[in-house]
Amino acid sequence: MKRSLPNVNDVASRAGVSTATVDRVLHRRSGVRAATAERVLRAADELHYLPRAELRALLSQRPLPVLFVLPAGGSRYLRMLGDRVQYSDDDWAPLNVRCRVAFVPSFDPRSLAQALRRRGRGCGGVAFMALEHPEVRAAVHALAEHGVPAVALVSDLPNSRCVGYVGLDNRAAGRTAAYLIARFVGATQRAKVVMIAGSLSYHAHMDREAGFLQLFAEQYPQMQIVGLREGYDDERTNYRQTRALLEQHPDLAAIYNIGSGAEGIGRALRESNLQRRVVFIGHGLTPDTRALLVDGTMDAVINQSPQSAVMNCVRIFANLRDGRDALSGVEATRSQVILRENLP
């Protein structure tokens, strides 16, 4: 039996809208929300209702809706990244992309997965800071099944259906932090070092820890790791963790802050009058880490540009929409080692 060609009713049923809405979208009439129009066009594509060239022409006339899902909470770097998304419409205009941001509770994989499923379905792309969890992977899979590309931002989600990752090589970043500490402390000196992570449920933090330990094992075995704490990127938690570590190890030589919340660590060092004795390395150039560098509490910051990170995500989604290779024009993410003397 010959298979019948799809019709307007099929498109409407697949998109979950009325046939009148399908008609308005396909004839480029106003009165339809961007997310709804995107859903209609995606349904038309999946059913092969329109020739690809005609469908691409329709898509190209509408701003591509892109959603960034970021953790709320104490990370000033992530707040800066969210601000970049929300207040840079002029930057996305040449790419015909419209960006918005949704904040979800930090370190909560269920909330992240729900946001991806519920808010990502009507988008042309979703960028998110990934938590290592089965529910998050399942949500990314569900988006892919509905034709919505997802990009892991800052922290990767390996072996998932993400179309890409935008962020540092975090294992290399951890090795860089270890090298800096060894050189600041003195490569031939036995020294006690502690690490404070945001959460090891972030693949980025796991990789930084692994790279840090790997370099010490390879090149500086005299460095002694005496503690690893999770501070959940919270300044007050990091403050308490640091005070406890300093009391436990009064001869502590260095601290590597894998995540955020640097001001809490800095406050503990200043109150103990150790801000120029204990080497302090961290991530993300923000107003608080800049101040810590200026006053000498912090020795170095490993940074990645939030502007470049957001733009790379936008370019990936625009490329996929326009039928280009996903990484066309996407710059490799570079890390910068920021010291007080080279502050931008």
Q: Which residues sit in consecutive blocks of at least 5 with pLDDT less than 50?
A: none
How much helix, percentage-wise, in residues? Answer: 40-55%
Q: Tell me the CATH topology of the largest domain.
A: Rossmann fold
Secondary structure class reads alpha/beta
Number of separate helices: 14
Oligomer: single chain
CATH class of the largest domain: Alpha Beta
Globally, the shape reads elongated
Work out the strand percent.
15-25%
Distance between the termini: 69 Å
Order of helices and strands: HHHHEHHEHEHEEHEHEHEHEHEHE
Judging by the overall fold, what is the CATH architecture of the largest domain?
A: 3-Layer(aba) Sandwich
> Would you tell me the overall average pLDDT?
89
- The CATH superfamily of the largest domain turns out to be Response regulator
Strand order of the largest sheet: 7-6-8-9-10-11
Total individual domains: 3
Number of strands: 11
What would the keywords be for this entry?
14 helices, alpha/beta, 3 domains, 17% strand, 344 residues, Rossmann fold, 46% helix, elongated
Task: Outline the structure in words.
The chain is of the alpha/beta class and 344 residues long. It has 3 domains: 53 residues, 434 Repressor (Amino-terminal Domain), CATH 1.10.260; 129 residues, Response regulator (Rossmann fold), CATH 3.40.50; 134 residues, Rossmann fold (3-Layer(aba) Sandwich). Helices cover 46% and strands 17% of the residues. The protein contains 14 helices and 11 strands. The strands form 2 sheets. The protein has a 6-stranded mixed beta sheet with strand order 7-6-8-9-10-11, sandwiched between helices. A 5-stranded parallel beta sheet has the order 2-1-3-4-5, sandwiched between helices. Strand 3, helix 8 and strand 4 form a beta-alpha-beta unit. Helix 9 packs across helix 10. It is elongated and about 75 Å long. The termini are far apart.
